[in-house]
Amino acid sequence: MKTARTLAALGLGTLATVAALASPAVAQDTKAAPDKANQQCVVNTDNGDRACFATHREAIAYATKGRVTDAPNDARAALKDEKLQERLSGPRSQHGIKPAKNAKSALAAESRVLATVYRDKDFGGGSVYFTGSQGCSFRYPWSATMGDDWNDAVSSTASGQCDITLYQHADYRGFSQTFRGNVPYVGDAMNDQASSYSFDR
Length: 201
Ligand SMILES: [Ca+2]
Known about the structure:
Bound molecules: calcium ion
Number of strands: 9
InterPro entries: G_crystallin-like
Order of helices and strands: HHEEHHHEEEEEEE
Distance between the termini: 39 Å
Shape: globular
Helix content: 10-25%
Largest sheet: 6 strands, mixed
CATH class: Mainly Beta
Number of helices: 5
CATH topology: Gamma-B Crystallin, domain 1
Signal peptide: 1-27
Keywords: Signal
Low-confidence stretches: 1-28
């Protein structure tokens, strides 16, 4: 545990090392962290890998595989920054489109943010940045459940490359609603209800 925390704390310079050596350890580390509710996490929906950090900047750097290392730690400021959002999720003209394989673009498919969910209203508290290689309109293997830490916890959402649909129950069951853009409150019906999700456009 201690090793993992130390590696994570070393930050961006060691990002590749952390990813290569300690992905499982980083995931375990989230369970021991004292301030779990305010952790900024990244979930790779291709394989379920999850890593959590103290700050948005660290989480975004991890989500983008070290491509974006200067994001603000204020989630609201980040969402208002159109240029930053384009760096995170690709140009709006490409949103919803499945990324070309072997894209030469610096915005490789696997380092784009598909969408983000937040524990509190107004993009507050902890967050999860979802990444995945298949773009939108695809049910990723790891999106059928939110995971224990995040079940029935989401209160606000932000589109990235994709819009996000939240489902009341696991396995895309129960009522559902698709959220587009920056949504400061998912509404009384969906608040603290989401148990699975999919990406749409
Ligand atoms: Ca639920």
